[in-house]
Amino acid sequence: MHWADVLAEKLCAQEKKHVLATGITPSGPIHIGNMREILTTDGVYRSLIERGANVELIYVADDFDPLRKVYPYLPKSYEKYVGKPISDIPCPCGNHKSYADHFLKSFLNSLKEIGVKPRVYRASEMYRNGDYSDAIQIALENVTKIRKIIETISKRQLTKGWLPFNIRCEQCSKISNAKPTLYQFPIIEYKCDCGFEGEVDVRKGGVGKLPWRIDWPARWKMLGVTFEPCGKDLATVGGARDTGKAIVEQIYNYPHPALIVYEFIMLKGQGAMHSSKGTALSSEEMLHMTPPEVLRFLIMNNQPSKHIVFDTGLGVLNLVDEYDREERVYFGEEEEIKGMKDLRRTYELSQPYLLPTTIPYQIPYRHLVTIVQIGNNWNKVKEILIRTGQIPEELKEQDERHIKQRVEHVKYWLENFAPDEVKFKIHEKFPSVDLDSNQKKFLSVAIKKLQNIDWDAEKIHNAIYDASEEEKITIKEAFKTIYQIFLGQIKGPRAGYFLSNLDKKFVMKRLEQSIK
RNA sequence: GGGCCUGUAGCUCAGCUAGGUAGAGCAUCUGGCUUUUAACCAGGUGGCCAAGGGUUCGAAUCCCUUCAGGCCCGCCA
Q1: Computed from CA positions of residues A393, A398, A403, A408, in that sequence, does the dihedral angle turn out positive or negative?
Q2: CA distances (Å), A264 to each of A314, A345, A385, A417, in order?
Q3: Which nucleotide has the shortest C1'-to-CA distance from A458?
Q4: Alpha carbon A148 to chain centroid distance?
Q5: Residue A35 φ/ψ, nearest 5 degrees
Q6: Please, which residues bridge with residue A231 across strands?
Q7: Cα separations (Å) of A38 from A35, A49, A119, A387, A498?
Q8: Sheet with A271-272, side-by-side order of all strands
Q9: More confident: A314 or A126
Q10: CB–CB of A247/A40 below 8 Å?
């Protein structure tokens, strides 16, 4: 059984409303690892819906969290905002309402693209609206108990006057620097590092927030959460998951949700991603180079407990090929091979929106890498595909959309991630190369051979072989010569297919030029 | 130190949430009209499933122990 169904079945055993929660702090580009949290949950969500369960998928943006430090991707001037809630900090690009919005918005767009539709909550609004008031009051009434839980389970020593509440200084509006001096419900007197001394009424919204270890369980109760995946860093012994379980049960009197652990996504050659270190691949960027169904496939095809190594280089091509192959198997065009586990289910869960009823028109992704570099834009690519008979002239609308989308992804990948070995550029004008007399003789024979054949990859290929044999130059040298006059480099894509995708007139003209 | 994950063909991995004769891709070898280049086809070679023990009629698959590697334990998924 697919892991999403296994998890869904377990939840189904309890007949009640299920709230599947996800939560990410938009303090930087939200990366593909964060996306795993959402997609993992979405898999379970869809499975529950199919089972007819009463279920809701939510996403809580922790935008009331303070900015921890000036991250590498921020200007130095952000120093003055450290400690303020990210929903109150100006947007780095100036086009969004706040710092949090800047990162949140692109993430929400990505969600739309991969077909995830959660109900979105913002912590900043929840705090300001006073939604947290009860939870805050309960936490403050149970300081001693909470303190004991955290100190016992996490083995951390809390400071003397510690309160389960981080006050937001009224003067500097920073959340992390104010220390409580006296607490008498509902008033906390405090002294801030900025020199300000004041008092807040905890019943009022937005005067501060619960620390993370308490905020999390408080939220479970408040939103009725029954399932939430968490990253392996939080799942460590004595971590937020352990203290959260104890706090939600002992303080908030609510059963802890199912907290499954998911592993990190590594970038090949770089290890785990850290947005704070700048070694992260944003979900947006990821979606520019990987078709949405393939990104979903990456997550759905792997058990959450397994780490995934993502290779932004040639690995992307393999991933798309694997997806296409499973698609062919799904639609019965290819035989299933042993080891394609839960193939049908994986394929279904990989669809961002509707499940196709017939197989989408496939063009091998690697091949698109070549054609896109010849055609440059969709219209030309389409023209080449039609001329070479790789697609029919009348293509179904959704098939055209599908191929066009892939072409766009290939382009982005070529521009930003592809290794040099697969890149080439057709020179519009004759490149500056010196050909020796043998090469020229070979070319003049090749012209004759090519002139009268059908413009077909295999025939072109054979013509090149014939010419090289007649002129007694090595086949290697022959191919090199071809690449030189078209690409200005000594290597290139498979020659026959490559030339067949070019316009014959253009090829012949270039060949003529080369022997002058 | 603690936690989680991983250890299956030369390489990358599937199979382990149904325990029942070892799977794929790449690489390599042979053949197909000579086929550089990650868009051929057909076939072959190649594995004591990390090691040891246990449960079972039967274990890559379940349990225990050991070894090796990776990641995580600061509110970074």
Answers
A1: positive
A2: 21, 23, 39, 21
A3: B35
A4: 39
A5: -60, -30
A6: A262
A7: 5, 16, 12, 42, 41
A8: A271-272, A265-267, A308-310
A9: A126
A10: no
Q: Show the tokens assigned to A306.
A: 């397994």
Q: Where do the structural domains in chain A lie, given as residue ranges? A: 1-123+213-358, 134-209, 365-422, 437-514
Q: What is the DSSP letter of A204?
A: S
Q: How far is the CA of A288 from the C1' of B39 (A)?
A: 23
pLDDT per residue over A332-376, tens digit each?
Answer: 777 776 666 778 888 899 999 888 888 888 888 888 888 888 887
Measured CA A2 to C1' B62 distance, in angstroms = 20
User: For chain B, which bases have at least one atom within 7 A of a protein Cβ?
Assistant: 2-6, 12-18, 23-24, 33-39, 70-73, 75-77
The 10 Å Cβ neighbour count of residue A424 is 20
| Spatial distance from the CA of A459 to the C1' of B77 (Å) | 53
* Residue A168 DSSP symbol: P
A28 CA: nearest nucleotide by C1': B76
Q: Where are the alpha helices (DSSP H) in A351-424?
A: 365-375, 378-387, 397-416
Strand, coil or helix: what is A55? Answer: strand
Gap from A209 CA to B32 C1', in Å? 73
Q: What pLDDT was estimated at residue A124?
A: 94
Q: Are A374 and A384 in contact (CB under 8 A)?
A: yes
CATH 3.40.50.620 fits A1-123+213-358, yes or no: yes
Q: Do domains A1-123+213-358 and A437-514 have the same CATH topology?
A: no
Nucleotide nearest to A266 (CA to C1'): B71
Alpha-carbon distance of A426 to A369, in angstroms, equals 14
Beta-carbon count within 10 A of A421 CB? 9
pTM reported for the whole predicted model: 0.89
Instruction: Report how far residue A231's alpha carbon sits from residue A261's, in angstroms, rounded to the nearest whole number.
Output: 6
ipTM at complex level: 0.80
CA atoms within 13 A on the CB side of A443: 23
Distance (Å, rounded) from C-alpha A293 to C-alpha A445?
A: 48
Contact A109, A284 (CB under 8 A): yes
Residue A502 has which token pair?
Answer: 């070019």
pLDDT digits 0-9 by tens, A84-142: 999 999 998 889 999 999 999 988 998 999 999 999 999 999 999 999 999 999 999 99
Angle (CA) A333-A336-A337 rounded to 5° is 140
Q: Distance in angstroms, CA of A238 to C1' of B55?
A: 34
CATH topology for the A437-514 domain: Arc Repressor Mutant, subunit A (1.10.10)
